[in-house]
Amino acid sequence: xxxxxxxxxxxxxxxxxxxxxxxxxxxxxxxxxxxxxxxxxxxxxxxxxxxxxxxxxxxxxxxxxxxxxxxxxxxxxxxxxxxxxxxxxxxxxxxxxxxxxxxxxxxxxxxxxxxxxxxxxxxxxxxxxxxxxxxxxxxxxxxxxxxxxxxxxxxxxxxxxxxxxxxxxxxxxxxxxxxxxxxxxxxxxxxxxxxxxxxxxxxxxxxxxxxxxx
Length: 214
Ligand code: AMP
Fold this sequence. Notes:
Elements: E1 2-6, H1 13-24, E2 27-30, H2 31-40, H3 44-55, H4 61-73, E3 81-84, H5 90-103, E4 109-114, H6 117-125, E5 127-130, E6 136-138, E7 157-158, H7 165-179, H8 181-188, E8 192-196, H9 201-212
Parallel strand pairs: 1-3, 1-4, 2-3, 4-8
Antiparallel strand pairs: 5-6, 5-7
Helix pairs in contact: 1-9, 2-3, 4-5
Bound molecules: adenosine monophosphate.
């Protein structure tokens, strides 16, 4: 099964992708996590990607398509996965369609998580991420038992640099301009399912499962 999760930053894509991984065995492919890991490990990607992430801008399409081709069709490619954070532009979606066609693979569902824009900024400011296992928490809606430690692995929880208010505003603008048109792109292909993202993570998860027919 191959699923795309769409939606604005902070809507809960990461949390839901992790649940799909844990409970349905779909591999979570988060391009944001891959980029942050590459930056942390000082790989060649670091120089190309670091500035974009800091500013809340998108990394160029060509670079992202190379990264996703390697992840989805390289030596360690998973069979079932959920894409969290990719595609983010129309050229990325077109590039992904081409890759699927070349490899004879088809997409099962595109889920758009929808939320009230006013709720997003406060959700993003309250987000905390585990340095060790990338688990995502929210001090308001999905709090860890200890605000400084990950429930799952005990790793240190931190606030992503791009989750500060100044960068959040820019990321939301980028989303509206470059990523929101993807909903129409997939709607025209009859692949789009819209799922309200309000409620607890378990409630949202159940809606996603219903939408993908799991
Ligand atoms: P995320 O963790 O999905 O919020 O992504 C964090 C940052 O990584 C974004 O603000 C972008 O700078 C970069 N990024 C992640 N995925 C993509 C993508 N598909 N295209 C371009 N940039 C991306």
